[in-house]
């Protein structure tokens, strides 16, 4: 089966008597281990798609499934990273990563060990005790990625995660993300408005049209794999 499956999904927003279908009868199957990049202009429905898979909202019609089960809300099987790190400012970097592991029957010591391992994976072990505001933007986003990965989600959902970073940091983090994907075999759905980023990262690229919610292209990336 598919890691992620949408069947005839329409998502309609209504405000002040106006309706817009941010997604329109969308069918989409993503297999385990794919690195899918969804690209398209602002307002084309990318965030809506990601939000439906994350469980932030329900489709108006149609079904959304992850690993064969209907999505009914956010869950530890789906890690989410946004454009802004959204770290809790009152917690240390380590505390932020541990947070995602609370309430799941994991002992305090295990939570700490797992969070430290994730921070090590993204190169932040040395700053685990700092508060988010003591870190650069790139480091904060690394911490957000570590937090999303802590529960070991099968699916990683990323909504323009590098858009707010300077170009050099972004390049480095793109490479790190691809190495992480290669090493862990996770399913990644990555949303961006940058064609360059889509082509560089994705094994499969889905292009949405400016008219919201329509897929105009869905292709395996045939760019020579640089270290894939
Ligand atoms: P993208 O992520 O590609 O920029 P979105 O999924 O955020 O696109 O939005 C798709 C369309 O739905 C846009 O036209 C946007 O204006 C509209 N939209 C998004 N959220 C809402 C909302 N809460 N209420 C009304 N319209 C919305
Ligand atoms: P990034 O590339 O993540 O945006 P910077 O370019 O600002 O980070 O910093 C480069 C390196 O300097 C980081 O990878 C980190 O090792 C170190 N560094 C930056 N800020 C701090 C800090 N507040 N505490 C400890 N080390 C830091």
TrEMBL record:
Residues 4-228 form the ABC transporter domain. GO terms for molecular function: ATP binding; ATP hydrolysis activity. It comes from the Bacteria. InterPro entries: AAA+_ATPase, ABC_transporter-like_ATP-bd, ABC_transporter-like_CS, ABC_transporter_ATP-bind, P-loop_NTPase. Pfam families: ABC_tran. Keywords: ATP-binding, Nucleotide-binding, Transport. SMART domains: AAA. Coiled coil: none annotated. This is ABC-type nitrate/sulfonate/bicarbonate transport system ATPase subunit.
């Amino acid at each position: 089966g598919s890691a992620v499956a949408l069947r005839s999904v329409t998502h309609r927003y209504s405000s002040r008597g106006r309706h817009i279908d941010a997604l329109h009868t969308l069918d989409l199957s993503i297999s385990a281990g794919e690195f899918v990049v969804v690209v398209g202009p602002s307002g084309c429905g990318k965030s809506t798609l990601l939000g439906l898979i994350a469980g932030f909202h329900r489709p108006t019609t149609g079904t959304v499934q992850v690993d064969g089960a209907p999505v009914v809300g956010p869950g530890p099987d789906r890690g989410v990273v946004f454009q802004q790190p959204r770290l809790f400012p009152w917690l240390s970097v380590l505390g932020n990563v541990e947070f995602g592991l609370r309430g799941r029957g994991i002992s305090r010591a295990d939570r700490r060990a797992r969070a430290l391992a994730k921070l090590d994976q993204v190169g932040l072990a040395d700053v685990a005790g700092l508060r988010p505001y003591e870190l650069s933007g790139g480091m904060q986003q690394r911490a957000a990625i570590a937090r999303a990965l802590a529960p070991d989600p099968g699916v990683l959902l990323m909504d323009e995660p590098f858009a707010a970073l300077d170009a050099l940091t972004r390049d480095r983090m793109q490479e790190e993300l691809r190495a992480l994907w290669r090493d862990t075999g996770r399913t990644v759905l990555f949303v961006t408005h940058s064609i360059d980023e889509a082509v560089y990262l994705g094994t499969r690229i889905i292009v949405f049209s400016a008219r919201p919610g329509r897929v105009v292209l869905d292709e395996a990336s045939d760019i020579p794999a640089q270290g894939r």
